[in-house]
Amino acid sequence: MLNIILASKSKVRKEILDNHNVFCNVKASNVDEEPIKESLLKEGASPEIISKNLAELKANKVSQKMNNSLVLGADSVIDLTGELISKPESRDEALKILKKLNGKKHSLISSVCISKNGSMVWNYTDKAHLTMKHFSENELIAYLDKISDEKLYAYNVYQIEGEGRTLFSNIDGDENTIMGLPIKKIKEYLELHK
Question: Which of 7, 58, 62, 126 makes the best surface tag, with the fewest CB within 10 Å?
Answer without folding.
Answer: 126
